[in-house]
Every structure is written in structure tokens, then in C-alpha cells.
Amino acid sequence: MSSEAFPVQPPLPMGSIGRMASGTWGVVFLVISESMIFAYLAFGYFYFSSQPHYGPWPPDGPPSWFYPGWETAVAFAGSLSVWWANRAVARGDRAGLLSGLAVSLLLSLGFVALQGLDWYHQPTGFATDPYSSFYYLITGFHLAHVVVGVIMFAVVLLWSGLGYFGPVRHTPVKVAKIYWYFVTIVWLIVLFTLDVTPYFGWKPYQVH
Amino acid sequence: MGPLNYTVAFGTKGYPVVHLLWALIILSLIVVAAITVLTLAGILRRLRERRDATDAHLRSDAINLVPLERGGRGLSLVYIGTGISAALLLATAIWTFFTLDAVSIRPQQPAPPMTIDIIAHQWWWEVRYESSSPAQQFVTANEIHIPTGVRVYFKLHSDDVIHSFWVPQLTGKTDVIPGYENVTWLEADRPGTYRGQCGEYCGLQHAHMAFAVVAQEPAQFAAWKAQQLQPAAPPDSALAAQGQQDFQVHCGICHRVRGTTADGILGPDLTHLMSRASIGADTLPNTPGDLSGWIADPQHIKPGNLMPAVALSGSQLTDIRSYLETLE
Amino acid sequence: MSATPFERIPEIQSPNPQLEHKLEQMWKSKPGIRRWLTTVDHKEIGVMYLVTAFGFLVLGGIEALFMRLQLAGPNGHLLTAQQYNEIFSMHGNTMIFWYAFPILSGFGNYLWPLLLGSRDMAFPRLNAFSYWLFLASGLFLYSSWLVGAPPNDGWFNYTPLASRQFNPGPNIDFYTLSLVFFGLSLTAGGVNFLVTTLRTRCPGMSVNRFPVLIWGTLSANAAGLFAVPVVSVACIMLWLDRNFGAHFFNASNGGQPLLWQHLFWMFAHPWVYMIVLPAMGIVSDLLPTFCRRPLVGYTAVVLSTILTMMIGFGVWLHHMFATGLPSLGMAFFAATSILITLPSGVQLFCWLATIYTGRPVFTTAFHFLAGYMFVFVIGGVSGFMSGAAPVDWQLTDTYWVVAHIHYVLIGWNLFAVMAGMYYWFPKMTGRMLNEKLGKWNFWTMFIGFNVAFFTMHITGLAGMPRRVYTYPAGIGWHIPNLISTVGAFVLTVGILLFFINVFYSKRYGVRAGRNPWDAHSLEWATTSPPPPYNFPVIPSVASRHPLWEKRLKEGDGESVLERGAVLDHHHETFGVTAMDGEPEVILKMPSESYMPLLTTCALSVLFAGLVSRSWWCAGAGALLTVILSVVWLWPLAEAGQREVPADVL
User: Fold this and answer.
1) Domain contains A89
2) Longest alpha-carbon distance in chain A
3) Are C419 and C213 spatial neighbours (Cβ–Cβ below 8 Å)?
4) Exposure of C521 by Cβ count < 10 A (0-12 exposed, 13-18 middle, 19+ buried)?
5) pLDDT (tens digit, 9 = 90+) per residue, C519-530?
6) Which of B35, B64, B195 sits opposite C348 (nearest CB)?
7) Are residues B182 and B289 in the same domain?
8) Residue A21 lies in a domain
9) What's the CA gap between C586 and C574, in Å, rounded?
10) CATH code where residue C250 lies
11) pLDDT tops 60 at residue A203
12) pLDDT (tens digit per residue) in C384-417
């Protein structure tokens, strides 16, 4: 009979700690699942674009890069600021945490505004044609995830302001970081689908 | 078994498929039998051990008394079974490829001998005989005549939802999809009437969306076709003439009878209604009584179908039916 | 070495009454009705899952009996066409979505922490949430009867028949929204199962020691995370088509009807494996107990499980062989569909070898397992026949496929579920199910099931299409249909016998000790029923069969079940390394909460608003959901989520 059931000698950390927190693992699997949404949306988009009888796709030529370009920049800047906030909280730098999260919150709100402006300037509506339905569907799904990011940043900022987090306990700050990285990465999928692939051999419609 | 039984086939498209079907059925039955016998053998082995053993534990039926043992050589059974399965599966896949090749559509050189355009509606079949010369084109419904020994091509279109074109003893299903043109073919090698049925759930009256493929010797087919090309004969009695008038007023918005002012396209073309064996997409036999019943209240017979019950007096009903009976 | 305030060395003890009393006070649920509304105990949630899923089985079964009565003879008129179409659609949705997977989640929830040697799932409140979502989405689906508009387009709901143009009522809105609603439950459950397997286990529970049920449920839930989003996306797209004039699926509106089929089957084929792999795991775990030997080919079974799930994503097109695919695509998908049979075959041969080289004990559970072999092979061969594309052009959408799907769903799922119920009922209630009644239960179910559904193969070969509300006389369908109806009623009697057995044995059954079957896995090491904290001390395992290892002389070292870490400061369990099961953290878990139920209510308001097109109501539901989620996730000091040293608490 082995004398000791449990051979671990060093003390074990307790509770919600960084990589070992269940919340961290949970959000990783959640964003993997959410990413699939965008993979399937892209499948639908390319399925339509590959149907020969649709003529040009998009119908009015490749979309403008103006808003998507700014949105890309804002998404990456948000990733940077939330990374900064995480670095700060791990070092016990409260001011850095709060400012990093506040900047992330503003950037995520900026993304919402840019997407709104982009929609506002679209010549077509949701129900105009299959392309526009897809355009609004895909950007809309992404926007919904950005809005969740806004809420997340706001709440985590509030909690940070209440002094809940420190160098050991700050899983929600980490969760917000992972989530916003995901938002940024799937934005790249959206960008590639909607704004890059139309440049691969888009031809104006030929009347037969 | 009945007219849609697809374990038999008549024609060059049906044969390779039905051979594969039977091979798979037999193979499947053998596999089921083998696994069942092996399972029972394992059970019998234990029963015999329980009967013959002298050791009280081996004789026991109490689970905690039966000894635990890591019995040997189980994996060899797994290897053998998996090996045999893999070989059979591979053979099946290869046979499937050959069958696919035998029945698939190939570009026709020269043009296919005969093409029929099928337009599926909720819940009936429009049949358009194509020809390069307009004088050789005609339209009918729910009953498709073909000559024996000829590869007949079908272009499949849908007017509304997805249906599936299926004549079990001549060809498997090909879906009829709105916005697409699907193509299939079949060939009957002997005369006969082959029942077809919509094979994809298409709404309320999916159950009543059958049709018939009538294969005839080429000479008979030519005669049938010549007759179909004719416009409707003029009414041969006063009753029928009155019926034609009433038909044109009450029914002509949806139905067409070539040679009259009834020119609707929403329902089946009735120019040669009496040449068809059934009505309502094979819902009723085409007898005078059933025809009257159908006209009087189609919603009772096939609830939800798109033919409304038209308010007709008894005499109108009679003379319309008399007129329809002239549409040979 | 001294611990920081955020660390401690777990105390090692043997179970003692003092400790058990302390843990009992710490872990037990609230009394009375509040117990069921607030519980986060995986065992109670597991039982709620099982009971609710059986409830849906009964509902779907009643619908089935109506259909069988209608079809017992030609030109039946018990039901109108409309009623029949609604009933077959609800039957399919109920059984495939709200019975078949949740019943397995019920076993998973009840058993996982017990099998893995932990105190609860990784996210206890999320676990309750996934249950409430499952229940609420099912009630939402059934509320469609109240407004007289249940889904009426079958369980795969093809467009454009499902478009507003051809289906103007709210029927299909109930379908799309209830699936999205249910998808939330699946995602919550999936994340929870994954993190639980990877994180909350006992020391020594390395991946090569998992019971096969863990592998089956893990594969299913991992697949769910990849497959569920596609059906949610497709349903949202269809809902937008129907309510906001989008152009996705309706051909007359510029849409692509076949895109729906692709998206649906990209989800639904993996789904079919999701609802059988955990059941196959049950078979793999039960056979060793009843054959008195370890499973033959554990590694092969586990790899086959994972492989089946992966290939399951690559066969969806075989549901669309008749849609006019290019020959090359058809050949590829025919090949994958035929070859996916092989890993299932490997599992079958492993079971067969286990029976053949073991010493079967003929309990009711073993009867169901042996019956499972028979129905499994029939469901398997009828499936592989459908993989041969040219043959499938005949088989598809006929009663052949109806027979096949029932062999898979009843045969591959329900028979394993029944075996599982006979096996684990003693663990759940402390009493054995009656064996004599059990044999009757088995034989009526087995005979009734095969009479009803084997006959449907014949009906199918005779050319009867599925989903017809009636059929004419004289075309050879009457007799087989009548036989199927009789069989369905015999099957019903069998299932009723099961319920009678449950109610009888719950009260009068023979008392079960800890391990009435002399079984091999960890759940049998604790009392029956287990205490709320599962194990007074966390066991540590050194082999695949901790309760058998001494007799089998296996394992590297010895499992220790009677002495281990106490973990009694709060709701605590070990967090371990993913592969080897080495403890690396003491996880703290939340206790009872109303939040999962309240958040589900808020989401129900949201979905009720969407289906009734009351946007203010939907908006209120969404806002409420956000607020409640924030309250729910508020960092708790006692769960170690705030920067407060543990020794202060």
C-alpha cells in the first residue's frame, strides 16, 4: 500500500488564477465556437459568389476600404490597449489597468460608430439583393460581437474601479483580453471575405 | 409488391442500380446474421460454462461472485472483423463508382433523341414535350408517355418549392429545385405503366402528387403523340357545347384547352383530358363519377390543393363534365 | 516551504464523520422547492435533464402513435393533412433535438464528476443554465401549439417551402427561434463539458484512464461547439428571410434553396453522431462490468470514437445525393459515407470480442446491451447502403430512411439509455430497478421496436415515401404499415413498463450498496446515492479500473480511494493538468444561485418578443439578459475571484 495518497508537496494556488482559472478556459472554448459562426457565414457568402448566374459579386464592384480600414486599425489598437491593461494589472499598476481598459472601451465604441457610419453610407439596404443581405448579415454578426465587447470592457472597467483586481486575481481582465483578440481575429476573416476577395478577379457584368 | 417497389427495374438506367441494391441487401443480411450469431455464440458459451462448471463461482449468477479475468485473444477477433469489413467496404465503394458512371448523364453527341421538360407544381406535374419545331411541341400533365427502347431526357424545373422526380422502377430521385435546372434520364425496355411519385416533402398535399410514365412501342407512341398534337375536338352535342361555354367562363382562367378560349396556365392543360387514366395527380381514377366529384369539391378530395371549389349549379356541373368527356 | 496567502498545502485525511458533516453542510442544496430552482449540484441537474428528456420522449411518442394510427390503413382520416404534417414535424424535432442529446447530457451531468473524481462540473451555474435553457427552449417550441402554429416542415425544414411565401404563419419562426434558443443550451453545455474534462479531475486521472463515456460525450460536445453555430446561423438567416425580406434561401427572391440544405446538413450530420457516440460510450463502459473483464481494445474504441466524430463532418452531402451534384463530388461523398462505417465497425467488434472472451452475467442491462448489438448492426448496414449514391436515389425520402433513422435514434441511443438507466439507477436512488419487470421491459421493447421498424425497411423498398399523411389502397403498403403500427404499440408498452419499474423501484426496490454490480469505475466508490460533495476526500487513481485493479493486477502503482485531499474550505476541487491529471490548483466554485433560472427567464422574454414580433418586448428581454449576466458574473470574494487573500476569508 502506498503510504501517501496524494504525493504533491508544494503548496497549490487557490481560486481563480490566470491561465489556471476555469473562466479562462471557458472563454477560449466559447470563442472557438463563436469563430465557427464566421467560418459558416463566409461559406454562405462564397457559395453565393460561386453561383454562375448571379453575374458580378458584389454587384457594384468591390467595396470601399475607407471604413473597413479604420475599423481594422481600431480593432488592433483595442487589442493593444487591453493587452496593456493586463500587463498593468499583473504588475499591480492600478492606473495603467484603468487607463488601458478605458482606452479599450473608447476604441470598441469607436468601432461601433465606424460600422454605423459605414452602414449609413451604404447605397443599398438589407433587403436589396443577396449581396447586400450577406453584407449586412456578416458585418451585423461581427458588430453584435463588438457590442458584447463594449459591455465587457465597461463592466470590467467598473470592477477594476471598485478595486476587485490585483496582481493575483484578475481573470475577468484576462477574459476581456482573449475576447477582444477573438473579435480582432474574426474581423480579419470578415475583412478578407468582404473586402479582399472581391479584388480577386472581379469582372463587371457582361450582358449576354 | 406494388407499383413503386424499386427492388425490380425495367430499363437500362434501372438495372445497374437494382443489381447494386440487391448486392447490398444480401451483404447486409449476411452481416446482420453473422454478428447476431457471434453475439449469441458468446452468450451460449457462457451458458454452457455455467452449466458444466464445477467451480461454484463459475456457476454463479450473482455478479460479484463471477470471477474477473482479463480474457485473452479478444483483439484478434477485432483485427479479423475489421479486415473483412474494410475489404467489403472498399469493394462496395468501387462498385458504387462503376454504377455511378453507368447511370450518370453525359454530354450527348449528337443531341439527345428525346427531351421532356417537367415543371413541378404544388401538387401536380406539368409535362412539356420539347421539339425544335414549334408544331411538334405540346403540353400535358401527370401522365408522361415515352417510347420503349429510347433514352428520354428530362429537364426538371419547379414553379414553387422543392419536389423530387421519381419513377421507382425506371429511375431514382432527382430533386426539382426552383431556380435550378436539373437533368435526368430514363429508358424503359418494355411497354407498361410505371408509377411515379414526388419524393421530397413539398407541403400539405405531398401525399397526392403522383404521376404515371406510360411506355409504349414506338408506333403506338407516335400515334399517341399525333393525337396529343391536335387541338381539342369541337363539342359533339348541345350539352357539351353548353359545357364548353361554362368551362370557358368558370375554368378557363386556370386551365387550357387548345382550340378554345380557355387559356389558363395555372392548372393542368386539359386538351386531351380523356386520354389520361387519372385526375388530381393520380388522386382519383378518371371516371365520370370521380370527375364530377372532383369538379364539385376538389377541396374535399385533396384538401388544400390550389383548385378552388367553383360555385356551379347542378346543370352547369353536368354540362361541364359532358364537355370534358369529349376531350379525347 | 511556506505558502503565500493565495496558496495552501491540501490536508490529507481519511473520511470521518466530522469531515462528512462539515462537507454536507457546505454542499447541500437549499430545502424545499428552492432546491430545484437554485441547485448547482451536477447530480440534481443530471436528474432534471433525464426527467425532462424522458418527458419529451413521451410527448414525441404520443405524436408517433397518432401517426401510426393514421397510417395503419390506406386512406386514413384520423388526422387531416395539416395535422399530420404538424405532428410529424414536431415528432422529429422533439425526438432528435429535445430528447436524444439532452438525455445523454443527463447521464453526462450526473456522472462526469463522479467518473472523474471531482466535486462538481467546472462551471456549476453554467450547468444549471444549460439545463434551464434546454427546458425553456422546449417549452418555447411547444408553445407553438397554443397559438395553433407548430412547425410543419419536418425536422430539416427545407426552403423555400419554409419561406414566408409558402408558409405564411409563425410556424417556421417557432422552428428557427427554438433551435437558436436550444443552441445556446448546447453551447453552454459544450463549453462546460470540455473544461470539466480538461480541468476538474482527481489526481492520476490521465486521459488514457478515462471511461469511454467520457470520450464519447467529450467528442460529442467538442463537435457541438463546431457544428451548432452553423444551424444557429442558418436559422437566423431563414428568420431574416421570413421577417425582413433578406435574400438567402427563397429562389423567387434571388436566394439559393440548396444553401439551406448545405448549412443544415453540415450541422445535422455531426449531430447524428453527437447523439449516438455518448450512447456508444455507455455500451463500452457497461459491457466490461457485465462481461467480467476489461473492454477489449480500449484504445481502438477511443480512437474510433474520435475518428467517427471527425469524419462525421465530411459526409453531409450524402443527404443531398438527389439534388443534382456533380459526379465527382458524389463519388467523394459516397466514399466517405461508406468508409465512416469502419470505425463504428471497430467498436462493434471490440464489444463482440468483450462478450465472447468474457463471462456475461444476464442482467436486464446486459439484455439491453446484447439487443444493442443487433439493432446497432442493422442501423449500421442500412446506413452504409444509403452511402452508395445511386442506391440512395431510391432509398432516400422513403420509409427505408425512416427505418434507418429509427434504428439509429432508438436503437443506437434509446437501447443504450435503457441499459444505462438499469445500471446507474441504483447509484442515483440507492435502490435497484426490478430485474423481473426489467426482462419484460426489455423483451417488449426489443420485439415491439423491431416489429415496428424492421418492417419499415420493407415498406420503403415497396416505394412508400416518407411524410405522406395517407396512401392509396392496393399498392402494397397496407400490410407492412399495419404491422408497424402494432409494433409501435408493443414498443409503447415496453416503455410504459420501464416507467412503472422506475416508480415501483424508487419506493420498493432492493437497496443497493455502494457497488451492486461490482463495477470498475470511480462512481461506484462512493455511496448510493452519492453525498452532495461526491467524495469526502478526493481519490487518486493509478489505473483505468480503479475498483478492479487489485484483482486484475494492473496499473502503475495503486489507486487510493480511502485517503486523500480534504478540500473543505469552500466548494473546492482540484484543477489538474489537461493530459496527466496532476493537480496544479485548488479551484473554488460558486454555490446555489437563482441567476441561471432568472437569466433563462429573461432570454425567454427575448425569444417571445422575437416570435411575436413585439420588438419592445425583445429589447426588454435583451437588456434584462445583459443586466442579469453582469450580476451573475460579479466577482465573488469567497470563490477566489477578487484580490482578497484567502486567509482573510
Assistant:
1) yes
2) 86
3) no
4) buried
5) 999 999 999 999
6) B35
7) no
8) no
9) 5
10) 1.20.210.10
11) no
12) 899 999 999 999 999 999 999 999 999 999 999 9
pLDDT in tens, B150-179: 999 999 999 999 999 999 999 999 999 998
Residue with the larger pLDDT of the pair C240 and B2: C240
B242 within domain boundaries? yes
CB distance C481 to C453 below 8 Å? no
The 10s digit of each residue's pLDDT in C498-507 is: 999 999 999 9
Residue B68: the pLDDT is 86
Domain housing C390: 2-524+592-633
Q: Are C342 and B173 in contact (CB < 8 Å)?
A: no
Give the number of C-alpha atoms closer than 13 A to the C-alpha of residue A21, restricted to the C-beta side. 21
Q: What is the C-alpha separation between C134 and C183, in angstroms, rounded?
A: 9
Structural domain includes residue B199 = yes
Do B190 and B166 sit in the same domain of this protein? yes
CATH of the domain at B247: 2.60.40.420
Closest to B92 (Cβ–Cβ): which among C355, C388, C464? C388
Q: How confident is the model at residue C443 (pLDDT cuts 50, 70, 90)?
A: very high
Is B89 domain-assigned? yes
**Secondary structure in 3-state letters for chain A:** CCCCCCCCCCCEEECCCHHHCHHHHHHHHHHHHHHHHHHHHHHHHHHHHCCHHHCCCCCCCCCCCHHHHHHHHHHHHHHHHHHHHHHHHHCCCHHHHHHHHHHHHHHHHHHHHHHHHHHHCCCCCCCCCHHHHHHHHHHHHHHHHHHHHHHHHHHHHHHHHCCCCCCCCCHHHHHHHHHHHHHHHHHHHHHHHHHHHHHCCCCCCCCC
Residue C364 domain flag: yes
- In this structure, how many other beta carbons lie within 10 angstroms of the beta carbon of residue B114? 17
A2 contacts on C by Cβ (under 8 Å) = 557-558, 560
Considering the domain architecture, whether residues B268 and B314 belong to the same structural domain is answered as yes
Look at A16-20, A188-192, B265-269 and tell me which has the smallest mean pLDDT: A16-20
Give C344's contacts in chain B (Cβ within 8 Å): none
Residue of B nearest to C476 (CA): B2
Into how many domains does chain B fold? Answer: 3
Interchain contact A165–C (C-beta under 8 A) = yes
Question: B229, B263, B282 — which closes off a domain?
Answer: B229
Mutate to test the interface with C, among B162, B181, B198, B301 (most CBs of C within 10 A): B162
Any domain includes A15: no
Q: Find out whether C102 and C183 touch, Cβ atoms under 8 Å.
A: no
Q: Looking at the domain assignment, is residue A155 inside a domain?
A: yes
Residue C373, C-alpha cell as written in the block: 448489438
Cβ–Cβ of A17/C539 closer than 8 Å? no
- Give the CATH number of the domain where residue A83 resides: 1.20.120.80
Q: What cell was used for C310?
A: 471527425
Q: How many domains does chain C have?
A: 1
Same domain, B129 and B198: yes
Mean pLDDT score of chain C: 93
Min Cα distance A200 → chain C (Å) is 23
- The domain containing residue B167 runs over which residues? 114-229
Find the residue in B nearest to C330 (Cα): B100
